[in-house]
Design goal:
- By secondary structure, this protein is an alpha+beta fold.
- The chain has four helices and twelve strands.
- The longest helix is centred in the N-terminal third of the chain and has 38 residues, at 5-42.
- 36% of the residues are buried.
- Mean pLDDT is 88; it is low at 1-20 and 33-43.
- It comes from Peptostreptococcus anaerobius 653-L.
- Residues 1-20 form the signal peptide.
Length: 228
C-alpha cells in the first residue's frame, strides 16, 4: 500500500520534531550535569584550600581526615586542627585553624554565645547560634549528618552551638574546632553535655561510627551550616 505524499510529509515532519525534541532534551540534561559539576567544584575543599565559606548557603566547609583510632576509643573531640596540641585526639583531623573557622562562622552570620569560661565550665551549657554538621567524602552515597557518623553512648543527639572562645583558643593553642561536650576553648561545642561529661564524670562516650565512615586517613569534607 502506497502512502500519499501528504501523509509521508506529515510523518517526516513528526520524525524531525521528535529528533529535535530528543536533541533539545539531551542538551538540557548535559547543561544540568555541567552545572552540577561546576557547583560541586565550587564547594570542593583541598589541602591548598582547606576551608570554604559560602555566605549564601550559610555554610563553612573544612577539609579533614578520619582518625580511625576513635572508632574504638572514646574522645570528647569531634574536630581539631592537625597542628594543635590536641591535634591527634579528634575523630576528624582538621586542616583549618580555629581562627579561620571562627571567622568563617561570623561571615555566615553566626553569633557567638561567649557564655563559658574555665570557672563555670562544668555547670554551664554552651550557648550561641545553633549549627548542623554533615560529613561527606569521595564515593559517599550522601552527606551524612554528624549524628550518623559520631555515636553517643546514651543515644542523645549532638547539638552544636557557636560558643566563640577565640582569644582563649589562641592562648591555649589546642586547635579545637568542635567539641563533644560544652567547652570554654572550642569554637563550637555540644550543648547536650557540660564540660567534663566525657573525661571526668564518664557520663557519656563518643566514638566514630565505623559502619558509616570510611577508613582511617580518608579525606572528608565537614560542612557546618547555620540552622534556620
Amino acid at each position: 500500500m502506497k502512502l500519499s505524499r501528504k501523509i509521508m510529509a506529515g510523518l517526516l515532519c513528526l520524525s524531525l520534531v521528535g529528533m529535535v525534541g530528543c536533541s533539545s532534551k539531551k542538551n538540557e540534561e548535559s547543561k544540568k550535569e555541567a552545572t552540577k559539576t561546576e557547583e560541586k567544584m565550587k564547594i570542593e575543599v583541598s589541602e591548598k584550600n582547606p576551608i570554604i565559606v559560602d555566605k549564601k548557603a550559610k555554610t563553612v566547609t573544612v577539609l579533614s581526615q578520619v582518625n580511625g583510632k576513635y572508632f574504638t576509643e572514646p574522645t570528647r573531640h569531634a574536630s581539631v586542627e592537625k597542628s594543635g596540641s590536641n591535634g591527634t585526639k579528634s575523630i576528624f583531623t582538621a586542616y583549618a585553624t580555629p581562627e579561620q573557622f571562627y571567622n568563617g562562622l561570623v561571615e555566615i552570620g553566626a553569633k557567638a554565645g561567649e557564655n563559658m569560661n574555665p570557672d563555670n565550665a562544668t555547670t554551664t551549657h554552651v550557648e550561641g547560634s545553633k549549627l548542623t554538621a554533615t560529613v561527606t567524602w569521595d564515593g559517599a552515597d550522601k552527606a551524612y549528618d554528624i549524628n550518623d557518623v559520631v555515636k553517643d553512648s546514651n543515644g542523645k543527639k549532638i547539638d552544636f552551638r557557636f560558643g566563640g572562645n577565640l582569644e582563649r583558643a589562641k592562648t591555649k593553642k589546642t586547635g579545637c574546632l568542635s567539641c563533644l561536650d560544652s567547652c570554654p576553648v572550642g569554637i563550637i561545642s555540644n550543648t547536650t553535655y557540660t564540660y567534663g561529661a566525657v573525661e571526668k564524670r564518664n557520663e557519656v562516650a563518643f566514638t566514630g561510627n565505623a559502619d558509616v565512615l570510611p577508613e582511617d586517613g580518608t579525606f572528608v569534607a565537614v560542612t557546618y551550616k547555620l540552622a534556620e
